[in-house]
Design goal:
The complex is a heterotrimer of chains A (244), B (278) and C (241).
Chain A: E1 7-11, E2 16-19, E3 23-24, E4 30-33, E5 36-39, E6 43-48, E7 53-58, E8 70-78, E9 82-86, E10 93-96, H1 97-101, E11 121-128, E12 136-138, E13 145-146, E14 151-154, H2 160-164, H3 169-178, E15 181-184, E16 189-193, H4 197-212, H5 219-233
Helix pairs in contact in A: 3-5, 4-5
Chain B: E1 2-3, H1 13-24, E2 40-44, E3 52-58, E4 61-72, E5 83-90, H2 105-120, E6 130-132, E7 136-148, H3 153-166, E8 169-175, E9 181-191, E10 198-206, E11 209-212, H4 216-221, E12 224-231, E13 236-242, H5 249-277
Chain C: E1 25-29, E2 37-43, E3 46-56, E4 70-77, H1 92-105, E5 118-127, H2 132-146, E6 156-163, E7 166-169, H3 173-178, E8 181-188, E9 193-201, H4 205-235
Parallel strand pairs in C: 4-5
Antiparallel strand pairs in C: 1-2, 2-3, 3-5, 6-7, 6-8, 8-9
Helix pairs in contact in C: 1-2
The chains are: A alpha+beta (244), B alpha+beta (278), C alpha+beta (241).
Chain lengths: 244, 278, 241
Amino acid sequence: METQEPRRVLVVPGEAIVEGDYKISTPNFIIKVGSKYIATVVGLAQVNEESKELSLIPLEGCYVPQVDDLVIGYVMDVGVTSWEVDIRAPFTATLYAVDFLGRPVNPAREDLGDYLAVGDTILAKVEVFERNRGPILTTKGKGLGKIVHGTVVEISPVKVARVIGRKGSMHQLLEGETGCEVIVARNGRILVRCPNKELEEIVIMAILKIEREAHIPGLTDRVKEFIIREKVKRGLIGGETKTD
Amino acid sequence: MSHTPSTDMITPKLKMLTIINMLKKGMRSTGRGLLDFRPIEVVLGYVPNADGSALVRLGNTVVVAGVKLEIGSPYPDTPNEGALVVSAEFMPTASPTFEPGPPDENAIELARVVDRALRELKAIDLSKLAIIPGRKAWVVYVDIYVLDHDGNLVDASSIASLAALMSTYLPKVEVDEAGNIRVDRSSKVSPLPLNHKVVTVTVSKVENVLFVDPDLEEENMAETKLIVAVSDDGRIAGLQKSGSGGLTESEILAAIDIAIKVGNDLINLITSKTLKQN
Amino acid sequence: MEKPRLIREDGLRHDGRRPNELRPIKISVGVLNKASGSALVEYGATKILAAVHGPREIPLRHLLLPDRAIIRCRYHMLTFSTHERKSPAPSRREIELSKVIRESLEPVVMTEMFPRTAIDIFIEVINADGGTRTASVTAASLALADAGIPMRDIVVGVAVGKVNNVLVLDIDEVEDMFGEADMPVAVAPSLGMITLLQLNGVLTRDEFVEALKLALEGANQIYRLAREALRNSYLKVRVEE
């Protein structure tokens, strides 16, 4: 049985989306005033009349950490037992040396700057976050840790979902069409590692296109065509573009 | 830059709830009603060296206002009139949270609200304050100092300013043929000419309850307040919403009706107190 | 400046507007690159640029609140925005307006989402022709929306004045200077909440009631324009071929 597509509307703060009783899956972006559901940010409201579900995908906004988020951070400061890391959130994150090194540190004998210096890039996960304290990161896990090669592209954190796509479709498309490794962090930083400079250029342009056109339907097809066209332009593949 | 005030005075939640619940029942801790002011004491001539002065106690809030008359040049757009300058300072004596230094945004706001009410209503007849028309005129400086802070500084200050102005006398002035001005402050010739009297009534809001003259604890929990300047002829001589909340249209209209009524009583009270002392 | 005839014989205002007519209003959102959010708002010749940075951590940690973000706001006039050069030093007027504008936005911003951070609002008066504080409120609230900071409503501002005994909407500099009263108002229309109200002048109670009604009607018109501008800043993005 085919499920009904949710109705999508562009809303602005203060705008009533629907009236009645709905389940809200994004409580930060929708409030109930009287019997009306009011949007609190500019975004796409999704109304599912069948399941009575209501959600709002913001089109602007800063990154707000959630536990288990994959993030790319820049080391801002080296402390005695931890690093301060910028993860583009309103709050500076902390990475403890004991987590990163996997053993206790002896501050009298070791300088943490020898392991991670100011300006270094890390791939990490948010381990703990409550709003009263800054987020705490962990680098325990496959592929996590200091990033030594590749390029980081920054996009608005609210557009990350579009770069991943439904069930990872856009992400697969980007990797499949370019042969690059694309690691999409939740805080809007995307690490790309490509076989060559041309493909790196193409994948970066494609990611920025997704960011710009995130709210316009038909995105996946346009991105696919775009990558193919750029590849032809650079002589990476021959002749005409195939569309089928 | 203006910033959200930090909570330097934390009222325990339990106490807050008690006060809010009482307000909802129309009661206050000291037994007064929602529209009652605390006892007001006005001491005229508290500062003999000022040309006019008043110390006002509003409950435990204490404010002194002083008037100094100085000879200055009139503004180019009003060459035949005197001028009015109002300033306010929150003294470190008044609260552990007041720091010495230039007036902060709250003091500036207070002074400007009092200033606007006096100015717009033409409370002082500035047209009678020219000494040499086009060249010299009296400048009326009203300076307000908050000495002790237990809430409702704006109303206390407006009362003190009005009382100080009502007790101000113009000194004797002589202008010789060369245009030299001689002032004899020892002989007071006439009262400062006033057209109108004006006070502010600040109506505070907690949840949906409106009330006047909060003490500091009540003030700290008020979401917002509407300062209404009320003239002796029952008009609105200025408004200022102050504080981080909002008001509905009907709350505003209710607040204004409260202010006009309470303001009229206040003006009568101050007038009778000043008449007795002058 | 000479005092012009504020209300002409035909009942129109010195610039030809009807008493309840706004000046031409232009709103653009997202006009700056580096700010989290921005807006440029024009009411006639009054031109206001607002930028929002944050929510962010700030060095002055003692200012921060444990349970919500603080809002910091500066209303600032460029030296050449007025007829006579404005001294670059902050004036008492600017300090007061920074406060009342901040307090007009506090009721709608969901600061509880960002404890221990600051949301900074910078308002630059580029050209002043009356109504700068109310245009500033509109610009600032759109800049906040553009920054994606959750808000219960957009706040818009408009001033009502009394000139030659007539209540008029959206007064300009001349009407402010030579008129009898200036009443700036800011409203969160969907919430039915008035978040800024000042009166510089003297009104009877009846005049006030009428002036407030006029202001709310004007605010509703500006609210529609503000929402449209915000929406358009997304709709105008076209698919690139």
